[in-house]
Give the backbone structure.
Amino acid sequence: GNSVTQMEGPVTLSEEAFLTINCTYTATGYPSLFWYVQYPGEGLQLLLKATKADDKGSNKGFEATYRKETTSFHLEKGSVQVSDSAVYFCALSVLLYNQGGKLIFGQGTELSVKP
Amino acid sequence: GAGVSQSPSNKVTEKGKDVELRCDPISGHTALYWYRQSLGQGLEFLIYFQGNSAPDKSGLPSDRFSAERTGGSVSTLTIQRTQQEDSAVYLCASSVSRQSYEQYFGPGTRLTVT
């Protein structure tokens, strides 16, 4: 079946440090890949997406590249800020008639950025 | 414009009682999803609606759970005879269509069963 595995947290970094959160997936068909973010006290927000192999999704300084050969979609940011403190979820979606574009999520990685 | 809204934001109920959770999707969004976020299970898919139809209900955790959508808009998730393991945050999301990859999430309903 389809599944997503992401690195466990919590991850604690100092401001301006480089961030990598690893995500790998298993899927049949041709999944689309996503990173969602959940800031404290807020709902889930789409951070970035990639819909086919070698696509790079980017937003707010975050990037992730869809790597089919390694079945990975690692999240990176060159210089994190305190405001990036949140829980990050990697997810995949394979369109199915009976389940639409349902998202399958990884377990989430909590990031804490210290000033 | 208005985003996805859910009500109530918090619900505390006694074991064995029924609860009804409501979702108002973004106007014009034909696809609607329910997910559950709990400590033990993470984020899991419950059910998908295209219009008023839910083609597959196998993601619902038990037959105590049911969901409906009316007028292609508002959806309700009903849990009968609640159990403590039903305690979780229930999230609703909508998207423009089944083929759209962008799902917009509501703030969730935190359900606590005592």
Notes: The mean pLDDT of chain B is 93.
